[in-house]
Inverse folding.
């Protein structure tokens, strides 16, 4: 957020710390009438006093909980699923991958016995054939007992 968009032009160039001691009229959108109403209602006269009001803190907290612009429930669900997928792919809780930057462990090709069905493809094809009652694509030529 750009500070020049939230304070009136007369207060541009001041640091955030300096702005805490400025009158409420330093805030963009707060004129003398609004400043007087805030003073009458809450007894505040400076930006810092307004910022420290419990009611303001509660409103800001609710706004943060609601998400940017009140994110629709479907969008929140998609974001949660995406976050979980990323965590499963790159687990932040895995100290080895976090410390060393390892994101995936693979076996070297020369260490894999490619002659055996190490991923169970034959069993999956057999299960699918049984479920469908017909040979699966790519398995028609295989007969029980053939190599």
């Amino acid at each position: 957020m750009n500070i020049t968009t939230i304070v009136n032009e007369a207060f541009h160039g001041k640091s955030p710390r300096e702005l805490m001691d400025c009158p409420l009229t330093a805030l963009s959108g707060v004129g003398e009438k609004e400043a007087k109403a805030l003073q009458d209602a809450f007894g505040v006269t400076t930006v810092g006093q307004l910022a420290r009001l419990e009611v303001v803190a509660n409103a800001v907290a609710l706004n943060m909980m609601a998400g940017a612009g009140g994110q629709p429930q479907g969008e929140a669900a998609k974001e949660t699923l995406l976050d979980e997928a990323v965590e499963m792919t790159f687990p932040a809780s895995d100290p080895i991958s976090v410390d060393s930057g390892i994101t995936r462990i693979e076996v070297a090709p020369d260490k894999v016995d490619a002659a055996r069905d190490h991923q169970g493809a034959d069993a999956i094809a057999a299960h699918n054939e049984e479920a469908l009652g017909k040979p699966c694509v790519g398995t028609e030529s295989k007969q029980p007992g053939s190599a």
